[in-house]
Amino acid sequence: MTIFLIGMPGCGKSTIGKLLAEHLQLPFFDTDSLIADMEAMSIPEIFEKHGETHFRKLEKELIDHWKVTNAVIATGGGLPCNNDLISKLNTKGKTLWVQVATDELVTRLSSSHDRRPMLDGLSPKEMKSMISQIFKQRKPDYQKAQIKIKGEQDNDQTVRKILRKLYT
Ligand code: S3P
What we know:
This protein is α/β, with parallel strands linked by helices. The chain has one domain (2-162): Rossmann fold, CATH 3.40.50. The protein has helices at 13-24, 31-39, 43-50, 52-64, 85-92, 102-110, 124-142, 155-167; strands spanning 2-6, 28-30, 71-74, 94-99, 147-150. A 5-stranded parallel beta sheet has the order 2-3-1-4-5. The two termini are 15 Å apart. The relative contact order is 0.21. Shikimate-3-phosphate (S3P) binds at residues 9, 13, 32, 43, 76-78, 116-118.
């Protein structure tokens, strides 16, 4: 089974992905980590030095050449929504959208220590408006996911929901 987790930054793709991979006894990958490793640069550094367009090109190259099967993969929040990569992901595995409300995303992202270049330096109010705007643009692509799950506060509960969806 190959599962691509998709969804907005802060929806819990990486945390849920790792837990899910453990349950399914599959390896876990994170597209941001793979890109950072291959470029020997953090994602914020890639944005700063080469810009977002270059980062999107790296995401596209990664998915165009994706060959790993039987794994759980957390994708960067914007990955499925650029260059119609959602359609590619849908041919390479099962896509699973983790849905979390905007207010909850803002709460989580405001207290997160991970840097997100698109949200750098924004106040919670500005962040809410930015997240709402980005989500509006991305929603039509996220909706093409084969499986849709409402992300719970408790990640273990979300994972149990996913397992039930996969097996029943
Ligand atoms: C991005 C989300 C980030 C990362 C990059 C761009 C986005 O990943 O890929 O900063 O455009 O939403 P997470 O969704 O894991 O935060």
